[in-house]
Amino acid sequence: MPQLDTYMYFSQVFWLLVLFTIFYILVLNNVLPKISRVLKLRRKRISSEGSSVLSEEHQAVMVTTSDVLETSLTDSKLFLSNVRESSSVWLESSLKEANEKTLLGLNKTYLKNIGELKGQSLLITDIIKGK
């Protein structure tokens, strides 16, 4: 297999470096100066003739963005206040239901059991004292 042959490594690395160096020099001398010229030309055009158009477009975008943000903020406030009101109503009704049904019944059962225990303890103490 030629790709695993160690005698071929030196020639492959040599040609890789030669081709990469040629490519690098071409890009450095030809391509990059053209790109920089185009960017400078664009920057000059934008600064001289297109600044009014761009600033008007920028202002329009800013106004639209602020309007959208303002409406979304008011909608969010309205939604949050509705959620808060509905959740407080639900919480109050749930607490009232829990107090009326569950806790009232448990409280009655607890007091009945305490009364029975107290009555039993009085009977036991009366029996022990011999009355």
Q: How is this fold's topology laid out?
A:
Layout: H1 9-48, H2 51-129
Roughly what fraction of the amino acids lie in strands?
under 5%
Query: First CA to last CA: what distance?
Result: 114 Å
Using DSSP, what is the number of strands? 0
Please write the string of helix (H) and strand (E) elements: HH
Rg computed from alpha carbons, rounded to a whole number of angstroms: 44 Å
How confident overall, as mean pLDDT?
Answer: 86
Structural class: mainly alpha
Number of helices: 2
What would you call the shape? elongated
- Please mark out the parts with pLDDT under 50 across 5 or more consecutive residues, or reply none: none
Largest sheet: none
The helix fraction, in percent, is: over 70%
Q: Could you walk me through the main structural features you see in this protein, from its secondary elements to its overall organization?
A:
There is one protein chain. This protein has a domain at 1-49. The chain is built from two helices and no strands. The model has no long low-confidence stretch (mean pLDDT 86). By secondary structure, the chain is an all-alpha fold. The longest helix is centred in the last third of the chain and has 79 residues, at 51-129.
